[in-house]
């Protein structure tokens, strides 16, 4: 079916469709060739404290270290409540010893600000930027504790590098890296606490988070006791010392061994595509497919206008055509049309973000699927523009 529009050629419905229409920014697409039969060896009905359970949990920790290149003297733990739980565990356990700077350029970063200011009642210095931008990192003093997101899942921006973080800093850097880990190089020597969830770049199952601690973060945990009570689920120390069991796979509460097996399968797949560098290449190829399309269509633009801070995972777009008077309604109509055609699921902008599209481009997504989606976006756009003309 062709969409007629005055003064231009009709836009024909594309023939090619994405083989996998799942472009959600979380939980994200499973890796190609994923099959639930891969989980057949999961030790279901067994205690996570039994040898078999501990071995699978330890394999998840060791595989994470291997693929992300985490230094040997950094601790890696599996914690409850996804990335949110990991970030809040770090904030409740570590903040309060030094002045704090909170950096926010999207919804989740803003949530960490709320935690620090309203829940922990810290006299934090808050620095914010609009969606599509980041704060001036040159103004950040890393002799203070600093909390920030590396990749803005809801805004499509990323921190370009860790050069702004001093090697001899006195403060701790607490980094929410949930949309960056396994897609971007993280400078471990500049990060003291790093968190992510399985459901993001590797397309794992929800409810489990990872927390990675530098030796400096461990020193803080063992030398500082926060003034507020810590629920059991947040406690990283025992008797004033780091609870080392957490970083050997002895989780604080009961994990899903099925989800653990799912994560292990994703780690195996990551190895098969070249580890971190292979995953980065796949994500950047996906971003390139979007960039090529946007470059040829002036009615569409990146929310992150500056390429140096543009995410290669959560790619956020906005419609710029002046004929659009209600951006939110227009974007929702485009998303609904694509959903009805079965070519793209869950690509609407985050509820707190500016209206538009959000296309997940992490390594589990095939570039051919991203390329196939782009003409459909044009078709849906023109269909909605034609509908506006009819109602004008």
From TrEMBL:
It is an enzyme of class 2 (transferase). It catalyses: O-phospho-L-serine + 2-oxoglutarate = 3-phosphooxypyruvate + L-glutamate. Pathway: Amino-acid biosynthesis; L-serine biosynthesis; L-serine from 3-phospho-D-glycerate: step 2/3. Its cofactor is pyridoxal 5'-phosphate. It comes from the Bacteria. Coiled coil: none annotated. Keywords: Amino-acid biosynthesis, Aminotransferase, Cytoplasm, Pyridoxal phosphate, Serine biosynthesis, Transferase. Its EC number is 2.6.1.52. InterPro entries: Pser_aminoTfrase, Pser_aminoTfrase_methanosarc, PyrdxlP-dep_Trfase, PyrdxlP-dep_Trfase_major, PyrdxlP-dep_Trfase_small. CDD domains: AAT_I (cd01494). GO terms for molecular function: O-phospho-L-serine:2-oxoglutarate aminotransferase activity. SUPFAM superfamilies: PLP-dependent transferases (SSF53383). PANTHER family: ALANINE--GLYOXYLATE AMINOTRANSFERASE, AMINOTRANSFERASE CLASS V. Belongs to the class-V pyridoxal-phosphate-dependent aminotransferase family. SerC subfamily. This is phosphoserine transaminase. It comes from Roseovarius ramblicola.
């Amino acid at each position: 079916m062709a969409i007629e529009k005055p003064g231009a050629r009709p836009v024909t419905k594309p023939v090619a469709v994405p083989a996998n229409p799942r472009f959600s920014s979380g939980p994200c697409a499973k890796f190609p060739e994923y099959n639930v039969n891969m989980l057949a060896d999961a030790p279901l009905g067994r205690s996570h404290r039994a040898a078999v359970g501990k071995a699978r949990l330890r394999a998840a920790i060791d595989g994470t270290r291997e693929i992300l290149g985490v230094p040997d003297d950094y601790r890696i733990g599996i914690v409850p409540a996804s990335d949110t739980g990991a970030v809040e565990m770090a904030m409740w356990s570590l903040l309060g010893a030094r002045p704090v700077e909170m950096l926010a350029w999207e919804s989740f970063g803003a949530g960490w600000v709320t935690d620090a200011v309203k829940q922990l009642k810290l006299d934090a210095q808050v620095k914010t930027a609009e969606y599509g931008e980041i704060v001036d990192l040159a103004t950040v003093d890393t002799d203070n504790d600093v909390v920030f997101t590396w990749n803005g899942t809801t805004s499509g921006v990323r921190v370009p590098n860790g050069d702004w973080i001093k090697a001899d800093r006195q403060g701790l850097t607490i980094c929410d890296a949930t949309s960056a880990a396994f897609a971007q190089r993280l400078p471990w020597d500049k990060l003291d606490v790093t968190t992510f969830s399985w459901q993001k770049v590797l397309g794992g199952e929800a409810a489990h988070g990872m927390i990675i601690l530098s030796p400096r973060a461990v020193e803080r945990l063992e030398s500082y006791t926060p003034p507020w009570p810590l629920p059991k689920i947040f406690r990283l120390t025992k008797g004033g010392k780091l609870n080392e069991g957490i970083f050997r796979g002895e989780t604080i509460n009961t994990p899903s061994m099925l989800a653990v097996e799912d994560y292990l399968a994703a780690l195996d797949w990551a190895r098969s595509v070249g580890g971190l560098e292979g995953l980065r290449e796949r994500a950047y190829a996906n971003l390139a497919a979007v960039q090529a399309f946007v470059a040829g269509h002036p009615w569409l633009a990146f929310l992150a206008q500056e390429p140096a801070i543009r995410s290669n995972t959560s790619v956020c777009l906005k419609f710029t055509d002046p004929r659009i008077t209600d951006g939110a309604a227009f974007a929702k109509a485009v998303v609904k049309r694509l959903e009805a055609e079965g070519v793209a699921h869950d690509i609407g902008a985050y509820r707190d973000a500016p209206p538009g599209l959000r296309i997940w481009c992490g390594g589990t997504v095939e570039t051919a699927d991203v390329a196939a989606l782009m003409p459909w976006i044009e078709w849906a756009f023109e269909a909605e523009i034609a509908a506006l003309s009819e109602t004008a």
